[in-house]
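Working notes for the structural subgroup meeting. M.R. asked for a predicted model of this chain before we commit to crystallization trials. I am recording the input and output together here so anyone reviewing the notebook later can reproduce the run.

Input as submitted:
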Amino acid sequence: MLAETKKKKSFFIAGAITPQMIAESIHKHSTKKNIGAHQIFLGQVRADVIEGKTVSAIDYSVYADMAEKEIEKLREEIIVKHHLTCAHVLHSTGKIKAGEICLFVFVSSPHREAATGACIEMVDAIKKNVPVFGKEIFEDESYQWKENKT
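Returned structure, recorded in token form:
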């Protein structure tokens, strides 16, 4: 009989990241007694005004195979570098409205300095290296491709 393989969890989710998802992730870590610090980054879609037009949503698309591999690589490197207990990343795909959460980075470690540094590094690396593309959709339904800023 073949051994069962655990299905790898995706770093991407269709739709916005809900407060319930965030709360559940935090709650799951309450049983881990070797954690002294958590650091969380929540990326939220802004209603920027660009050339007089207001962004109402961002439609995220991703080159999934490459993006999954890149996040896994970054995650593993940062866990080792900062001696983390764990690190979690969740990024939205599809149309996310202004005010909704589109990126959730959650890192845990025995000490706050490591968690803080790791979280910042993880977010910056994701923005710089992961092939996620955002189309800013304006209230009049016109759009433009978003430029990632670190």
